[in-house]
Amino acid sequence: VQSPSSSDKPRILLMGLRRSGKSSIQKVVFHKMSPNETLFLESTNKIYKDDVSSTSFVQFQIWDFPGQVDFFDPTFDSEMIFKGTGALIFVIDAQDDYVEALSRLHLTVSRAFRVNPNINFEVFIHKVDGLSDDHKIETHRDIHQRANDDLADANLEKVHLSFYLTSIYDHSIFEAFSKVVQKLIPQLPTLENLLNIFISVSLTVLILMYTTSQTCMFLPDAEALFYFRLMQDGSGCAYDKESLATIKLNNTTVLYLKEVTKFLALVCILREESFERKGLIDYNFHCFRKAIHEIFEVGGVSSLLSEKRNSSLKFA
Ligand code: GDP
């Protein structure tokens, strides 16, 4: 079975005004750049295509657009660009006056929707680190209201926009990107099913899955992210097939990390007494890992999600 060519991979577009933070988001989330380093990034002035397959578990590409893209320019091929797009992320700088950004958002969404009504429209209300909590809520409410009013005025109320408050200075940008990517994974229900089975048969309280780019796929809370960072520091974050890490916390909880694929780790949060049956957990993990490899790597297409594969898994 051939792996999908780059043109088949779901495409995520990053759009928004100049200096809204598009390149920073991409560099921080997928290239491990520290937030402070983004201060020195040059502004995006041409379409930058980033195939994140070599750094991410989920195969997709991100196209970072310059702020001043002109939809009426005949060289802007909106058919080609929007047809193959899974999600369009529009970044709005919440620390700046956002009137122009909103009109740009409207123009972009109405254009894209006409070409491809299946695109997920995701609005990142970005740089909220500079806003007080009250100001965040008010900005969110205001942008939500105005963007939807603009759509209603254009008889486009059926277009759905999702909003996220984001900053590269905390985990919010990882969480938002994770949600955007999750919507594009056709295997998601199967993956969730596998995780549920794993939990129920392995005495595990909770499991988390992380990609090495630190974009966690299932992030229950910030505390969990903290634990993961702790483990990464301990394990040096160099994954291979044998990689694992165990941490005993004071409160009789054990964290157990194991490599699933080159780009993905599974972290189990267990009670100490459950961890005494480590052999059972390891065996179930082996089954889980095998299933993940089959579902995501053998062709990587949704047609592989047959019930048969699922039911042939033998967890202990
Ligand atoms: P682009 O032109 O949309 O690609 O924007 P850049 O990624 O070049 O970012 C423009 C500026 O915004 C840079 O100085 C970044 O450091 C800054 N920036 C990006 N994201 C954030 C954020 O979440 N919070 C703050 N305070 N600044 C940010």
UniProtKB/TrEMBL annotation:
Keywords: Cytoplasm, GTP-binding, Hydrolase, Lysosome, Membrane, Nucleotide-binding. One of its GO terms (cellular component) is lysosome. It is found in: Cytoplasm; Lysosome; Endomembrane system. CDD domains: RagC_like. GO terms for molecular function: GTP binding; GTPase activity. It catalyses: GTP + H2O = GDP + phosphate + H(+). GO terms for biological process: cellular response to amino acid stimulus; cellular response to starvation; negative regulation of autophagy; positive regulation of TORC1 signaling. Guanine nucleotide-binding protein that plays a crucial role in the cellular response to amino acid availability through regulation of the mTORC1 signaling cascade. This is Ras-related GTP-binding protein. It comes from Periophthalmus magnuspinnatus.
